[in-house]
């Protein structure tokens, strides 16, 4: 496993009685949905869900006896889960009712909401510089035309994504379809787990320390905003939709029993075939859907989900625990066909059936750190360069619907980068001259690239023309300034600097 030279500095300042202990907090299972209305699109008759999501300051109960100020969608930490069927469009009205400035560093709380995992139209993609100021709202429109998958929405405000997402502006978003509904557990057995790490100041507020742009390494693990919770489970198969929403930390989940984790879906949805692993590496922003079979355990048995390793070279005692499951004798509904189903063959997808022979071009990228400025780059480019060019500069210009291979080499000595490409799903076709890890053999939009590693990605640039971002999802790296853009189906002279930035302008919110 990769090693690194990261220095750990980010430790909570809580006294020992304020510091939470693993496995005291019960897990709240039912996801909170945002309020919404249903309707029909007059243009094509397709159903539309209209969601209301308000960004606001709130106080979360995370620690014993101390409140934690957060920024949350609808005041929740993490935010409410959106769940709908493929083919149902959505309009998400995101109102920015945040204070003018962040309490920790005073940066202006202007936000841009990105639906990560979606082939959104450019002007609704959460383009970093397409910001909505406090007091305004923007309606984000999504087609939800892709196969079932676990997505998430989070803030992408230019140069402050890291602190904004860390403060709570992150939530899951699920698209269902009939194939996935038939194969995998649904409802209360389809469990969203949003994992993050945090550090706390002595007064209970979130601590933030981006270690000179390298990352934040908290010593408290949160699952759905609770430290090391425990969840009651029946003796049946559960589906865990695991999102690592840590702004920097990568995890290596493993069960305390050593029993298998059956990976059934990656970022872009179902894999062609399930992959049974004893542990797997899970970087920030990646989503893995995992089946765990609790049938064989006895009533009262506790199974822990642990974090096996030091993926970051930055670990603290309790970051080796994530959460626990307590097995109950609650009767199992065996008329639900997913109660004991561990499918092996899942579903093909367009992305996974792409062949390397379809590629018309291979492009080469290199990630680097500039040691003089502590800034991160991709092919020596950064978001500053994009801004300076009037949003015209791009690292690649694939044609619409073309298939390409992108080879990315990490030569930033001692650092790993979870690299994320907007718009597309990709297939990982190579890692250091070999194939991908078992758990990566599904459609992806974020890939872990360890130090000195080279990955090869195969993708089709569909379904929209536009200008899209590619960046590191270690968010302090993204903010400092490891983010570039590529143009799909456009020449530089076609790029209107007002699009995607202001094509749909935020509107004053007088409600
Ligand atoms: Cu999850 Cu461009 O981000
Ligand atoms: Cu994204
Ligand atoms: Cu990085």
From TrEMBL:
<dbReference type="InterPro" id="IPR011706">
    <property type="entry name" value="Cu-oxidase_C"/>
</dbReference>
<feature type="region of interest" description="Disordered">
    <location>
        <begin position="494"/>
        <end position="511"/>
    </location>
</feature>
<dbReference type="InterPro" id="IPR006311">
    <property type="entry name" value="TAT_signal"/>
</dbReference>
<dbReference type="Pfam" id="PF07732">
    <property type="entry name" value="Cu-oxidase_3"/>
</dbReference>
<dbReference type="Pfam" id="PF07731">
    <property type="entry name" value="Cu-oxidase_2"/>
</dbReference>
<dbReference type="InterPro" id="IPR011707">
    <property type="entry name" value="Cu-oxidase-like_N"/>
</dbReference>
<feature type="domain" description="Plastocyanin-like">
    <location>
        <begin position="68"/>
        <end position="178"/>
    </location>
</feature>
<dbReference type="InterPro" id="IPR008972">
    <property type="entry name" value="Cupredoxin"/>
</dbReference>
<dbReference type="GO" id="GO:0016491">
    <property type="term" value="F:oxidoreductase activity"/>
</dbReference>
<comment type="similarity">
    <text>Belongs to the multicopper oxidase family.</text>
</comment>
<protein>
    <submittedName>
        <fullName>Multicopper oxidase family protein</fullName>
    </submittedName>
</protein>
<dbReference type="InterPro" id="IPR045087">
    <property type="entry name" value="Cu-oxidase_fam"/>
</dbReference>
<feature type="domain" description="Plastocyanin-like">
    <location>
        <begin position="370"/>
        <end position="489"/>
    </location>
</feature>
<dbReference type="GO" id="GO:0005507">
    <property type="term" value="F:copper ion binding"/>
</dbReference>
